[in-house]
Design goal:
The protein has about 425 residues and is of the alpha+beta class. About 55% of the residues lie in helices and about 10% in strands.
């Protein structure tokens, strides 16, 4: 009977036997004091909570220490590899590559530390809630629903962050790299987990979310290639042009100023395009990253000078045939005469421009009172019939103004014959007349 009463008292003070705090039960059994037992139970819960917090803090510190030590080892290994590559001559700017690698390692280690910290403290919070006697199952259900809502609302943010993490781990690009995103070129100024900022050639800074980057081109990794298509005319000597292009490219690679940027021998791949606009010959030069543009400009300048010296024509280049007389001789196979020149002028000058072979004469104004005399006097350059006078130096004018051959004198019989001919023509046009019935 006493045992049952004692058990009932423990249940009333410390809670159910299965869930009662052992320190509370122990104090109640030793002292039989309800308040002291409850205080012991509260103190025990606080101690357990403090212990959980201490354990979580220690675990978080240990995880950060492990991640930091591993990152330091990777940094040392990266620095050693960059120095070896610099000694081999594979790369020249070791500081830039080292900065990129360290930035990537720091970003990745920060993400790992953050994830481990969230996991550790979330677990500690669940333990504390359980120690306080709050049911965990409803909280987990509510937390799951809240996570679904938050995940649906912040799905773009989560996608951007995950894409940023993958980008950093894969080392797709870093600060100082020239990249191409959606057809825009620029140098990277900032790389984050959510977005990337780069500045184009016009000085405009573009902020692009990492989740929206579907394709990115990096122009700064490892090596580049200066590619140039040299156009020449269709009738140019292709073999001679290829030899000249190869010589100019080889001289550029051997130049003390430009040679250090070339990492391989130039190659002339041959005819790249062929069409009515001409022939294009492709030449390529392996270069260091971001040095291909300057080498292309210098190669164009040297090829222009070499083509001018070798008289290799390019598409659309004008050729001087030596003036009108030489051009006429090339086209017709004979020398141009004065009549050919006048005929050419007659074909180009309008009909009302005056006589060919001389400029038009200005008409002087006729003074008042001499109207009759002016009308009776023939105009300069015209005959008595008002027609333009023939120019002895204009064969076309002489042919056009040749006088008609005089015929026999027309009399009354000729007039009647002409009238009869006109009547006959009119009848032929009207057709045969119908006969009366």
């Amino acid at each position: 009977m006493d045992a049952l009463l004692a058990q009932a008292g423990v249940t009333e003070v410390c809670g159910p036997i299965e869930e009662a705090d052992r320190l509370c039960v122990l104090v109640y059994e030793l002292t039989g004091n309800d308040g002291l037992a409850r205080a012991a139970g509260i103190g025990s819960t606080a101690l357990w909570i403090a212990l959980v917090v201490v354990i979580a803090w220690v675990a978080n510190r240990l995880s950060r220490m492990v991640v930091g030590r591993y990152s330091a080892q990777l940094e040392e290994r990266t620095t050693r590899r960059l120095e070896q590559a610099h000694e081999r001559g594979a790369i020249s700017d070791t500081q830039r590559f080292r900065t990129r690698r360290l930035q990537r390692l720091q970003a990745a280690s920060g993400v790992v530390r953050g994830v481990l910290g969230v996991v550790i403290w979330t677990t500690a919070l669940l333990f504390i809630i359980d120690l306080l006697g709050v049911p965990i199952q409803p909280l987990l259900a509510g937390a799951g629903l809240a996570s679904v809502v938050i995940g649906f609302g912040a799905q773009h943010l989560v996608r951007d962050v995950l894409a940023g993490i993958a980008m950093l781990i894969e080392d797709q690009y870093g600060v100082g790299d020239w990249i191409e995103v959606d057809g825009r070129f620029g140098v990277v100024e900032r790389v984050g987990l959510r977005s990337t900022a780069f500045r184009d050639v016009d000085g405009v800074v573009h902020h692009v979310l990492n989740g929206y980057i579907q394709r990115v081109g990096n122009l700064s990794q490892e090596w580049a290639r200066a590619t140039l298509d040299v156009p020449i005319a269709l009738d140019a000597d292709v073999a001679a042009a290829k030899a000249l292009i190869h010589k100019v490219a080889t001289d550029l690679a051997a130049d003390p100023l430009w040679g250090p940027d070339v990492i391989g021998p130039p190659e002339v791949w041959g005819v790249q395009e062929f069409g009515p606009d001409g022939v294009r010959i492709r030449v390529v030069i392996p270069t260091k990253p971001l040095r291909n543009w300057d080498l292309n400009r210098q190669l164009r300048e040297r090829l222009k000078a070499a083509f001018d010296a070798a008289r290799i024509r390019m598409p659309g280049q004008l050729v001087d045939l030596g003036g009108q007389e030489r051009g006429y001789a090339v086209l017709t196979g004979r020398a141009a005469t004065d009549a050919d020149v006048i005929h050419r002028r007659h074909a180009l000058v309008p009909a009302d421009a005056g006589a060919l072979g001389r400029p038009p004469v200005d008409q002087a104004p006729t003074p008042t009172g001499d109207t009759d005399a002016a009308s009776r006097a023939p105009a300069e350059g015209r005959d008595d019939r008002g027609e333009e006078a023939a120019d002895p130096t204009d064969p076309i004018g002489r042919a056009a103004r040749a006088p008609e051959t005089p015929g026999p004198e027309r009399g009354p019989d000729a007039a009647e014959a002409g009238q009869e001919d006109a009547t006959t023509v009119l009848r032929l046009r009207q057709g045969p007349r119908p006969r009366p019935d």
